[in-house]
Design brief:
The chain is an alpha+beta fold and about 500 residues long. It has 3 domains: about 180 residues, Protein Transport Mog1p, Chain A (3-Layer(aba) Sandwich); about 140 residues, no CATH class; about 120 residues, 2-Layer Sandwich (60s Ribosomal Protein L30, Chain: A), CATH 3.30.1330.60. Helices cover about 20% and strands about 35% of the residues. A 6-stranded antiparallel β-sheet has the order 1-2-6-5-4-3, with helices on both faces. Strand 5 and strand 6 form a beta hairpin. Helix 5 crosses helix 6. It is elongated and about 105 Å long.
């Protein structure tokens, strides 16, 4: 309950303008529905759209903690202002003026209490709230702090008003007001292209800052309008983990996909709530026929979901600027989805982290993988290369031999390398070789040893089919026991999965 109230106060203990019943004083900076108190100075203001909050609508005097507090959930536009009022006014006098504002609005006063009679101290939660930027206005919670909440029912929905009035120091009053207005969800802020033809296309969306150099949106899914790119990484081939549920004992259920990956980090103004950002992405993905594999919001995401998804230190900052070690009650949301079309498969993660304060900013990370097989044609072998390596080292890695995933079957893309090996063996008919299979360290020793031996045997069988004398070749599988490099990341593991010719 404490965290629920805390989240409610995140958008409630900031404020706006006030109408003095005796003499209103309006300003262009004030909320159009309520002016500032005469003589008050505006110190700070903030707006956030389509935000879900908890509104205190009843308190039981004298109760401690949160026992006597009744809360309701409200979604809408939140406008907050903070004012400083000089002139030796009392919180009692200012509070009476606000009660007259409630009457003028035709609203119902739900809460009117002072300090501990409120059932809990309103400012107890203030310092950890989204409205923390108003700290120059309300920096104390004395026995005269007044707390008011009102509700006005209209044909457009219910409006809620909240005021915190306190003595900052002698002769200075701090006034904070929050107004929550009913608001429809703003959609169509994200677009998805369900054609999987991949081309680099730069969007022309406006943002507060320029994208980092060399970055651009992925052609499958746009940025949220107004966002700008802060982090960008693209890899031609790697293993990408797509979560399908929350972590259990720090293990995240996930799909692992191999292919081209693109990870993009965005910043976005805190005027958009994470709920609105989340709903836009979710709506756009569904409209483009993506299958939603998993989605979660706030506490339903658990703790450190992204942090537990990858255990390698090299992936520690994969989802920048989104924090991977999110608290269980943080403003965090996530979507994972999959699309299969035109014989291509795309999987993605959308991670959203909300601004902690008004001076902070929303963060979004989009992680996309286009499922594919590794392109190994960039390294070619020829008879001269094989001869040079064998003369120098007594062995050579047979680049270009490609196997089906976790199997010993050679793929058709291996044909060019097999022809080169055959030509070399024909040029050196007296040489005999061990054909040695290697694996990475994923899986058991027994399985890896069997797989590496089977792959070595498959290479020999293909060479025999190309008229190489069987007696010249001996298959050996040593699994993971002789890595070229440490098995510390996916790229290194790929290098360790190999077949070598070793001169006898």
């Amino acid at each position: 309950m404490f965290s629920m109230i805390l989240r409610a106060i995140i958008f409630f203990i900031s404020s706006l303008a006030v109408l003095s019943a005796q003499d209103a004083y309006a300003s262009a900076e004030d909320h159009p529905g309520v002016s500032r108190y005469k003589g008050a100075t505006l110190r700070n203001t903030g707006v956030i759209h389509y935000q879900k909050v908890l509104v205190p609508v009843n308190v039981v005097p004298g109760t401690e903690g949160t026992e006597g507090t009744e809360l309701i959930e409200v979604i809408g536009k939140i406008t907050a202002h903070g004012y400083k009022l000089e002139g030796n006014k009392s919180t009692f006098e200012v509070g009476l003026n606000y009660k007259q504002v409630v009457e003028k609005l035709g609203a119902v006063l739900l809460v009117d209490c002072v300090n501990k009679l409120c059932g809990y101290e309103p400012l107890r939660f203030y310092w950890r709230s989204w409205a923390h930027y108003n700290s120059l206005v309300v920096d104390d919670n004395d026995e005269n702090t007044r707390f008011l909440v009102a509700k006005r029912t209209t044909d457009k929905g219910d409006f809620y008003y909240q005021w915190v009035i306190t003595n900052v120091y002698d002769g200075i009053i701090g006034i904070e007001q929050t107004i929550i207005e009913p608001e429809e969800l703003l959609l169509n802020q994200v677009s998805v292209n369900n054609s999987t033809s991949i081309q680099a296309v730069q969007t022309t969306l406006k943002a507060e800052r320029e994208d980092i150099e060399g970055s651009h949106d992925h052609p499958v899914i746009s940025r949220y309008k107004g966002a700008y790119i802060t982090d960008y990484r693209q890899r031609e081939f790697e293993n990408v983990h797509i979560p399908t549920g929350i972590a259990v004992n720090e293990v995240v259920p996930a799909i692992t996909v191999e292919g081209k990956s693109t990870t993009i980090g965005y910043n976005l103004s805190n005027s958009q709530s994470t709920l609105q950002i989340y709903q836009n992405y979710l709506t756009a993905l569904k409209a483009a026929n993506f299958d939603i594999l998993f989605s979660c919001s706030l506490v339903t995401c658990g703790h450190a979901l992204l942090d537990d998804l990858y255990t390698s230190k090299t992936e520690q900052y994969r989802f920048n600027p989104v924090e991977t070690n999110n608290d269980a009650d943080s403003d965090f949301r996530l979507i994972s989805a999959k699309l299969t079309a035109s014989n291509k498969t795309i999987l993605l993660i959308i991670a959203i982290e909300g601004a902690l304060t008004s001076n902070d900013i929303n963060k979004i990370s989009v992680d996309i993988v286009e499922k594919s097989e590794m392109n190994t044609t960039k390294v070619i072998i020829d008879p001269q290369y094989l001869n040079d390596e064998i003369m120098l080292k007594g062995r050579v890695v047979l680049h270009g031999l490609n196997f089906a995933f976790n199997k010993s079957q050679l793929l058709p893309s291996s044909a060019e390398s097999l022809r080169a090996i055959t030509k070399y063996l024909a040029l050196h008919p007296k040489q005999h070789f061990y054909v040695v299979g290697h694996t990475d360290n994923v899986g058991s020793y027994e399985i890896n040893t069997q797989l590496s031996n089977a792959r070595a045997q498959s290479v020999i069988e293909e060479l025999i089919a190309l008229k190489v004398d069987k007696s010249r070749l001996t298959p050996i599988g040593i699994g993971p026991v002789s890595p070229k490099v440490a098995n510390s990341n996916d790229a290194n593991k790929a290098e360790n999965r190999r077949v070598e010719l070793v001169l006898q």
